[in-house]
Every structure is written in structure tokens, then in C-alpha cells.
């Protein structure tokens, strides 16, 4: 599988770029933000690649940041979300904005995307909320805007105590987000025991 490409931009389109490396030009589908970034680069460019192999095609999806590729791959874990839909979601807003919307159960960013209705948006939120928390905590990239960081760590702590992700999230949702992780865990445990 191709996971990274460094080369020069041969061509740019509204939906893809052609990156030349080793005498071969690779068609790489990308977000508008990535294509904009590539249009300003004068020398060699580097992209993190997600490769999709099908019976009749080999498709490459490129991202300037590894974290964006990882979020794209996370979106693909939701049944009913294919690479085109995942790319469209990433075109609708930044990954951090989409993650915030998922944390807050706000489907509005997702329903703006063509082909994604309310039910699919709710499914994305339901299936990804816990995965995002675990992914960010395991990579050490948990949000630093206070609310998500403390809440995410509280959810992770409750999960490590044996509670399901849904129960942990539900218990933390009812608690003041300005409290420390330790205080949130204590209050959540009281909620879970009652």
C-alpha cells in the first residue's frame, strides 16, 4: 500500500492533483484545503496517502497532515460512508470543527454534505464519538480547549474502570465541564452508582 508520496505537482484539478515521483504521475484525490496548499508550493510536496484498492481501480487520497488522513480513515469505519463522502465531509469543515460537532451531537456540519441526511449524520456521531476520544487520548493529541480535554480524560478514566463508553459519556455529559478530570470522574461515579 502507498502511504506517503513526495514529488512535484504536475497538474491540479478541483478534486485531485497529479504528483510526479520516480517517473510516474499519481492521481491523488484531495480536499480543497490540501489542493490549495499544493497550489502554493514551488518545490517538492509531500502527502500522507490512504490507498483504496478495488477490483477495477486503485484510488489514492492525499492529506498534508497525518492527523487529517487518520480522521479520514476514521470516517471510513462508519458503514455507509465511502471515500467520496468522507472527503466531502472534510471539505465541509476542518477536522477539529467536525470533531467538536461530533462531541456536541451537532449534525449540522454533516447534513450540509451532499448525500448525507440526518440519519446518516446521527450514525456518524454515534459511531465516532467514542473512537475519537480514545484515538486522541492514545496519541496524546487530546484537545487543549479545556472542556473536551477534561471531559475526554474523564470518559477514558471511567472506561478504564470497566464502564461502557456510552455509560461513561452519558455520566460525564451531565457534569459541569469546567471541573477538573478528577472532580468529573468522582461526580460521574456517583451518577453511575445511583
Explain what this protein looks like in three dimensions.
This protein is α+β, with helices and mostly antiparallel strands. 52% of the residues lie in helices and 20% in strands. The protein has nine helices and five strands. The chain has helices at 32-40, 66-76, 83-92, 95-103, 108-111, 118-139, 147-160, 165-173, 181-193; strands at residues 4-12, 16-21, 24-30, 45-54, 57-63. Strands 1-2-3-5-4 form a five-stranded mixed barrel. Strand 2 and strand 3 form a beta hairpin. The longest helix has 22 residues, at 118-139. The protein is elongated, with a radius of gyration of 19 Å. The termini are far apart. Mean pLDDT is 84; it is low at 143-147.
Quick structural overview:
The protein has 194 residues and is an alpha+beta fold. The protein has helices at residues 32-40, 66-76, 83-92, 95-103, 108-111, 118-139, 147-160, 165-173, 181-193; strands at residues 4-12, 16-21, 24-30, 45-54, 57-63.
Total beta strands: 5
For the biggest sheet, the summary is: 5 strands, mixed, barrel
Radius of gyration (CA) equals 19 Å
Widest β-sheet, arrangement of strands: 1-2-3-5-4
Total helical segments: 9
User: From N to C, what is the helix and strand string?
Assistant: EEEHEEHHHHHHHH
Q: Between the first and last Cα atoms, what is the distance in angstroms?
A: 50 Å
The average pLDDT value, as a whole number, equals: 84
Low-confidence stretches: 143-147
Q: What gross morphology would you assign?
A: elongated
How much of the sequence is in beta strands?
A: 15-25%
Structural class: alpha+beta
Oligomer: single chain
Helix content: 40-55%
Amino acid at each position: 500500500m502507498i502511504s506517503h508520496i513526495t514529488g512535484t505537482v504536475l497538474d491540479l484539478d478541483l478534486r485531485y492533483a497529479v504528483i510526479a515521483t520516480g517517473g510516474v504521475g499519481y492521481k491523488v484525490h484531495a480536499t480543497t484545503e490540501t489542493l490549495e496548499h499544493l497550489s502554493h508550493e514551488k518545490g517538492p510536496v509531500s502527502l500522507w496517502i490512504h490507498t483504496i484498492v478495488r477490483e477495477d481501480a486503485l484510488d489514492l487520497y492525499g492529506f498534508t497532515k497525518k492527523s487529517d488522513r487518520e480522521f479520514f480513515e476514521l470516517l471510513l469505519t462508519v458503514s455507509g460512508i465511502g471515500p467520496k463522502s468522507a472527503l466531502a465531509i472534510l471539505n465541509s469543515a476542518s477536522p477539529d470543527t467536525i470533531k467538536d460537532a461530533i462531541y456536541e451531537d451537532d449534525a449540522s456540519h454533516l447534513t450540509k454534505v451532499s448525500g448525507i441526511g440526518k440519519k446518516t449524520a446521527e450514525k456518524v456521531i454515534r459511531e465516532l464519538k467514542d473512537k475519537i476520544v480514545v484515538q486522541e487520548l492514545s496519541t496524546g493529541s487530546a484537545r487543549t480547549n479545556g472542556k473536551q480535554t477534561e471531559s475526554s480524560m474523564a470518559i477514558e478514566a471511567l472506561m478504564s474502570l470497566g464502564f461502557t463508553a456510552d455509560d461513561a459519556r452519558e455520566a460525564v455529559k451531565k457534569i459541569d465541564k469546567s471541573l477538573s478530570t478528577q472532580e468529573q470522574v468522582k461526580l460521574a461515579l456517583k451518577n453511575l452508582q445511583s
